[in-house]
Every structure is written in structure tokens, then in C-alpha cells.
Amino acid sequence: MNVPEVWRPRPMKLCPRFGTTITLQQLLPDIQVFGEGELEVAACHSQASRIKPGDLFVLLYPPGPRREAAIEQALQRGCAAILSEDVLVGLNVPVICVSDVRAAYGHICQALHGFPSQKLGVIGVTGSYGKTTTACLVARILVQTGHSVGMLTSLGYFEGEDSIFPKETTPGPEELAQRLARMADNGCTHAVVEVSEKALKQKYLAGLELDTAVFLNDDRSRDDSSDARRHWFSLLSNLRAEGLAIFNADDPRCRAVLAETDHPALTVGIQATAEIKAREISRHLGEEIFYICVGDESFPVRTRMFGRHHIYNCLAAVAVGLAYQVPMEVIIQALESVDQIPGRLQPVLGGQPFSVFVDAADTPHALSVTLQAVRSQVQGRLICVASLPRNCRHDLAKWLELLDGQCDLAVLTLGDPGGEEPTALSTLAADLGKSPRRVVLPDRTEAISWALAQA
């Protein structure tokens, strides 16, 4: 590696929206800056096409032609400096070298927006499934007590005034900091953030402070266990010193991480020993009755949303509510007031003589949880219209085994073909249809109409 001969710390300044100017050295003490001149940065971007004169360009690309093209475009657009894990030579702007560019990116974004999470009570919810529902339940509990609550979930982003349909479950570092800042500006007291697996892998939450971290479940295989463990501990590192972690004691991964954390924690569960427990009473399509048990007290809950998985969501929301000292009576009222959540076993009522539900399960395990909840209450046939993800080839066998095992009839659509060749799609369709219990209809509208006609 050709390292520039001259290096010395430069006063690289960040100019946040709030507060006083800080230096990069204060925010990231271990950085190395190569290049001449002082620098003030008011914005940073990881997309070269968004760079404006004076901005910091965050280099996330691995070595290769795309990286070189991105650097060239950022320079042409007037970037003031480049943030990188590698020393870059021959450039006419300073290069800021860090050991972890994604983590540094998150910290800088939070700083440029005045550390908005320090002005909010931020609750992060993660897990393989149940995140959106739990986030909605938590928000309803806090709103019920008079708080103004912002939300960032797969259903939408709400900043205290306007709702926006999201491009992804958890926004990237720039947008995350920006939206949290808007929540604070709009008078929100709390923010509920659905934390996706992608957000954990790519460190979107770096620099953000959490009041509470909720860990629901993890359905990944043993092969992915080390990554999952590292990502969960990364989220725990976002907790304030007095922050609370909430774990599902019935989930093995949750128990393993709980055993190794020093943070204050609450456990919830149905089967395992836990501080907040549930006791199932009765279940029907469109109704779940259970008790929430806290200490020596039991509180009955009757909700229109059903399934054991929903009880776990309710337990996690109860734990958050109690952490914020919300009375149990108010918590129960909030849980019971949530009749449905879009795409989460959402009932479709059109006067038909059979039940219809819409669910957004996008992994085999999530769909299995949904089908188990419905199957236990169905006397007749269970028909599932499944639009398989375009990237399902690597786990197609899991999808088909699940559908064959839990459905009387699976009506499969190919979803978004994702640019695949027609011949590849034809082969996939042929594979999908090799069972008398499967029908392949590529057009989703046609598939739904056909399935309804069979009911």
C-alpha cells in the first residue's frame, strides 16, 4: 500500500443542525486524516449522485470499477473529503480513514442532525417476525398515556405530523437521523423503530441511543448463529447505560444473549420462567383470550388479533409499557383497542361464507407461524395463495415443504420476476407445480380469484 508521507490530524469540523460545532476527532478519536487543509462538513452521503460541493462522501463500495466510478463522480460533484476504510492516494481532497466505515457513517449522521435520539425515548424492536405488530402495540400504549410517538416501521414512517410509505423497513443512516430529528422538531416524546436484519448487518443504528431494545425471536439456522449473536450485541451496545433490554424467554437465541448481557433486562414468555407471563385461555378465528401475569396479579386480555405469536407480541409490548410505568389497566385497554394491523393476519370481510386473511409473511418460518395459527382453528380446507419472493431459489425447498405440509391447496405466484429470463421462470414454474396440492398461476390477481372460487 502506498501511504502518503505526510499525515497529521486536521481540524475536520462537523456543523450539526443543533448545538455547537464538533470535530471529527471528538466524535471518532481513532480516525486518521490524510491531506492538506481545514474542513467543515454540513452533510454526508454514501451515494455519489447526491453529493453537493462541500459534502463528505462516504465510500461503502469494495475495491473495483464501481468504487472508482463513485469516487470520480463524487470528486466531480465537489466533495470536500472522502470517508474510507482504505488509504486512497492521488486524490485532491482529504481522505479520512476509519476502521469501520459503516459505524463511522452512522455516528456522523447522528451528529450532523444534533443527536436526535438524545431528545427522544427511542424503542428498538428486532426479531425474525412480529416486529411491526409489536411496534404498533408499543406505540398505541404510549399514545394512550398522552405521549406523542413517532414510528419507523415497514408499514410507514410517522414523524409526528405526516405519514410516509417506506422504501425499506429501517431507513439508512442519513434518513434515520433526519427522521428522528424531525420527530424531535415536531414535539414527539418517543420513537418506535422496527430494526430489520439488514439494518443490523449494515449498522444503520450506529450513533443512535436507545431507551429500550426488544428482542422477539430468531429463526435463523445454526450456520447464521454467530452473525445473529454479533448483530444483537451490536444493538445492545446502542442502549443507554440505564437502558432496558426485553427478551422472549421462550426463544433459545434470546436466552443465550440474555445470559451474556450486563444491561438491565426483563423477560417475557408463555412456557419458560419469565417475569411477565401469559396464560392462554381460548382461541378462535378473529379472537384470542389470555391472561397477562405480572407478579401475583393476572389481567385478562381479549383481542381480535389471534394466534400464539400475537400473545408474544403483546407480552413484549406490556414489558415496554411497564418499563415506562404505564398502569396495567391502560396497557390492556391499548392492546384490546388494536383490532387489526395491515398485512398481519388481516381479515377480509366481504360477506363471504368463509374466512379470508391477508398476511405479509416473507420467510418460510414467518409463514409457518401464520399457517399454524389459522390451521388450529379451521374445520375445512386451508387454501394459501403465496407470492414467493424473487430471491426464493436458495430456500425454495423450505417454502414447498411448508406449503405441502400445512395447506390443503397452495396457489403459487412468482411475484416480481426480478429480471430473470423467461426460460428460468418457466423452469421454476414447472418445479413448483410438481404436486397435486399446488397450482401455479403467475398473475397474482388471477391466482387470488381462482383460489376464492375454490373455497
| Main beta-sheet strand count, sense and barrel state | 11 strands, mixed
Terminal residue distance: 67 Å
In percent, how helical is the residue content?
Answer: 25-40%
CATH architecture of the largest domain: 3-Layer(aba) Sandwich
| CA gyration radius, whole angstroms | 25 Å
Strand content: 15-25%
The rough form would be described as globular
Number of domains: 3
Which CATH class of the largest domain is shown? Alpha Beta
Give the oligomeric state: single chain
The H-level CATH homologous superfamily of the largest domain, spelled out, is Mur-like, catalytic domain
Short summary:
By secondary structure, this protein is α/β, with parallel strands linked by helices.
List keywords for this structure.
455 residues, alpha/beta, Udp-n-acetylmuramoylalanyl-d-glutamate--2,6- Diaminopimelate Ligase, Chain: A, domain 1, Protein-Tyrosine Phosphatase, Chain A, eleven-stranded mixed sheet, 14 helices, 24% strand
Overview of this protein structure:
The chain has three domains: 12-112, Udp-n-acetylmuramoylalanyl-d-glutamate--2,6- Diaminopimelate Ligase, Chain: A, domain 1, CATH 3.40.1390; 116-337, 3-Layer(aba) Sandwich (UDP-N-acetylmuramoyl-L-alanine:D-glutamate ligase), CATH 3.40.1190.10; 346-454, Mur ligase, C-terminal domain (Protein-Tyrosine Phosphatase, Chain A), CATH 3.90.190.20. 33% of the residues lie in helices and 24% in strands. It is built from 14 helices and 24 strands. It has an eleven-stranded mixed beta sheet with strand order 12-11-10-13-9-14-15-16-17-18-19, sandwiched between helices. Strands 3-8-7-6-5 form a five-stranded mixed beta sheet, with helices on one face. A three-stranded mixed beta sheet has the order 2-1-4. Helix 3 runs parallel beside helix 5 (173-185), helix 4 crosses helix 9 (308-323) and helix 11 packs parallel to helix 12. The termini are far apart. The model is unreliable at 1-9 and 417-425 (pLDDT under 50).
